[in-house]
């Protein structure tokens, strides 16, 4: 295995920063759009052969240092009694959302059996590229899953989940506990099946006030991290000024969105690993600007424990050449 990503995620000094991108096997790649003409999103995710083809698309174009599974943060909802689909123009829609506090406790299926297609995808990727790059597993985080489960669809400010926590605090904690236990088990399963690094996407948890984040989120993130025997990246948006709450979960790497200044994050987090954090909109600039802004982040992060990434996912309209420029900039660095 090419272990550059694993070494950086463990906080080691590396000869250059490893690089991958969130949503790197997405709609910015023309071949992805062609494949999706024949399959719905859920069909593509749950068919290991199709998911393998999509996961490998960025490898064929960019040779990143990590391949993130083509999957979805809501996959873990399936064995927990939730059904969902992707609705054009809306996004993920939960067909049977949480209707009230009595609807939180649901029957649960064994994760390895219900989500065996994820294990098969990892087996396939291990056979194809496991000796040349690191495999990245992931799952949604407890609050992000709760936001979808309560609202039934994406919401701009996650008000349904925030109201639920105030009106039904005990049920809200039971729901978070359900997701915490399931996410920890799911990530451990991915590691058992070959994932070298995993990331927790609790993207929306940053909407909570600091006191509520401390109460509801930090201990559950800590529980997930402790259950995984592999380097773990924790990503939450809108945490500028609250990085200490991310560090309190004891992840190996803190994912930074683009609103955080990398140098300031390094000063605050010390030796803790960091990931990020180029503003995704920079990939719409000219190549010279992309190289300059990328190098600024690399230099601010330094040679130890830095995983280069965007501050969030690749936008669907991003030019392929811009992504290639970003990746190649990292590969041309030598400390």
Question: How do the strands and helices of this protein lay out in sequence?
Answer:
Elements: H1 4-9, H2 30-36, H3 41-46, H4 48-62, E1 66-68, E2 84-87, E3 91-94, H5 111-114, H6 116-129, E4 134-140, H7 142-151, H8 159-167, H9 169-192, E5 197-201, H10 210-227, E6 232-235, H11 243-247, E7 253-255, H12 262-269, E8 273-275, H13 287-301, E9 306-307, H14 320-331
Parallel strand pairs: 1-4, 4-5, 5-6, 6-7, 7-8, 8-9
Antiparallel strand pairs: 2-3
Helix pairs in contact: 4-6, 7-8, 7-9, 8-9, 9-10, 13-14
Site (Transition state stabilizer): 72
Keywords: Cytoplasm, Decarboxylase, Lyase, Porphyrin biosynthesis
InterPro entries: UROD/MetE-like_sf, Uroporphyrinogen_deCO2ase_HemE, Uroporphyrinogen_deCOase
Description:
- The chain has 335 residues and is of the alpha/beta class.
- The protein has a single domain (4-331), classed as Alpha-Beta Barrel (TIM Barrel), CATH 3.20.20.
- It has helices at 4-9, 30-36, 41-46, 48-62, 111-114, 116-129, 142-151, 159-167, 169-192, 210-227, 243-247, 262-269, 287-301, 320-331, and strands spanning 66-68, 84-87, 91-94, 134-140, 197-201, 232-235, 253-255, 273-275, 306-307.
- A seven-stranded parallel beta sheet has the order 1-4-5-6-7-8-9. A two-stranded antiparallel sheet has the order 2-3.
- Helix 4 packs parallel to helix 6 (116-129), helix 7 crosses helix 8 (159-167) and helix 13 runs parallel beside helix 14.
- The mean pLDDT is 96.
